[in-house]
Amino acid sequence: MHSLAHDYPATLLAEREAPCLSLYQPTHRHHPDNEQDPVRFRNLVKRLAVSLRAKYPACDLQALLHPFEALAEDRNFWNKTGDGLAVLGATDFFRVYRLQRPVAELAIVADSFHAKPLMRIVQSADRYQILGLNRQAFKVFEGNRDVLDELSPIADVPQTAVELLGKTPDDREGAHRTHGPNGVAAVTQQGGGVPHAAATVTRHGTDVRQDIEDRDTEQFFRAVDAAVLKHCSQPSGQRLILAALPQHHHLFRAVSANPSLMDEAIDVHPDALSMDALRERAWQVVLPHYLQRLAGLVESFGAAASNGRGADDLHSIAEAAIAGRIETLLIEADRLLSGHIESSSGEITIADLAHPEIDDVFDDLGEIVLKKGGEVIVVPSDRMPTTSGAAAIYRY
Q1: In CATH, what is the architecture of 4-122?
Q2: pTM score over 0.90
Q3: How far is the C-alpha of 200 from the C-alpha of 179, rounded, in Å?
Q4: Cα separation of 71 and 54, whole Å?
């Protein structure tokens, strides 16, 4: 399964050879509701085929549709769906994303991907990740206020200590120690061989075994931290909550270099909680930070607007977006305005959103700002500082 955190925005907003196929549909997690999901998917693929024949009659239709048709027949895939599905395809390109939020049913063939629904998901401010950790293994979850799912697999990273460190029991440090009478262990020098008397340290076998376990645990925690930072935190930019028994918190924090790791934590391993209970515990950790972040964005917009570096007028925002002047754009969640933004002038043309070729102005604004290196945040309607549906903070 492809990672939306890795692909958005750079991969999905990149220029590609037309035609580009975009398919979205709501899906269901459980039987019997999910029985109709592959049927609806096949119907959407048929709509893609009709559009391809009409708009791009010279294209290799079979090659473009083959990955979609193969997915339709993958029973294992349809038994593990989320709340929504996004499937994007083009020449030598195919991506499938299980989504944690429902999306409207849509099948579009155009000269670029219709990535707007993905922006709404990725740029929402309520997302977080959880690291479940013990001495033997780790797992990572991703969620929002409503949904939590385990991320598996995480790239190609092994998730057990044995696999991640490449150690078997015989490889452990204890295999290179000699034990004397009464359970006393003699620690050999690093170079091997039997140490001379001055270099020998004798300790009880229980103490030595504990030292070995502690060193192995520290090595494992360091490897976990590096893997999670590289494959989860850096691509997503999300807060990371540690969920582990209390005795593991101090050591992991001592070795962690992950700036996304939150000070607050969950003091049980995820295996001890249901998914709903884990999500609720996590959201209680995230909620104060979520509200604080939204309040800070609103305050920043107010300060910027008071000195001429902020605006809520859509036409002014569109022009500034085209010029690359927007540093941060707040978009009201679920707000729609059917229309199109002219790519050279920023002029807004209002049209009928019922036609697939017509975009949503707010999503257009978000894509433009992202392509120009700005930040886009999707904000709940009750937290928006404006009534226009958008608020922009300018770079200059």
Answers
A1: 2-Layer Sandwich (3.30)
A2: no
A3: 12
A4: 24
